[in-house]
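ugh ok fine here u go
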Amino acid sequence: MVPFLTPKQLQEKLNNQETICVLDVREDWEYEICRLEKSLHIPLGDLENRLQEIPYLKTIVVVCHHGIRSQKGALKLIRAGFSDVLNLSGGIDAWAKEVDPGIGFY
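structure:
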């Protein structure tokens, strides 16, 4: 199991300008509907071929719609040698409900 953080914990990290990378592993069409500002978008199916795009020395917070694909993505990152990886609990859906309803829903 990958450690997780809640949307409010992520908001706190972003507000404190902590050195993190929000990695969104949803599909292109999902990312177009709503996304966290300044997130890095790499669909889960492309992740293994694009690992070099992910900043190795930052905390990586992996995001999807509800938290299932991001859990899989986070496990792939850990297996690839990334050490500080977290999964956003409830995904972008929970973020929209708990932090920013204006971001959009689907």
